[in-house]
Design goal:
With 118 residues, the protein is an all-alpha fold. It is 98% helix and 0% strand. It contains 1 helix and no strands.
């Protein structure tokens, strides 16, 4: 019985010793895992910050492209409007020339008629 008691006492001591050692080791393991997670998150944060910078740069380039496209569109629109105005003026010019030709023809006919009547 004494041996059994000593065995149990010895086992109890070993268990207590194990339990005394376990929390710090577990704590260290938890800390290591947390540190690993922190490192992983820092790497991810760094990658995301880099991607954000790339996107901001792309945004700047796109804004410049957009401004250039708007300027070219405005220039095209102005050229188109000018062409429309010139076309109207050209058509009017042709109409006026045609009318002048018709007037000349009529004057000529009138002159011919006047001469014929005299």
């Amino acid at each position: 019985m004494k041996k059994r008691f000593e065995f149990i006492k010895e086992q109890k001591n070993k268990l207590e010793e194990f339990l005394d050692k376990t929390p710090p080791e577990m704590s260290t393991l938890k800390e290591q895992k947390l540190e690993e997670k922190v490192l992983i998150l820092k790497k991810e944060k760094s990658k995301l910050e880099e991607r954000l910078k790339q996107l901001e740069d792309e945004k700047c380039f796109l804004e410049v492209d957009l401004k250039e496209a708007r300027a070219k569109y405005k220039e095209f629109e102005d050229t188109l409007n000018q062409a429309k105005n010139e076309c109207l003026n050209y058509e009017c010019h042709l109409t006026i020339e045609n009318l002048n030709d018709e007037v000349k023809k009529l004057k000529s006919k009138v002159s011919d008629l006047v001469e014929d009547n005299e």
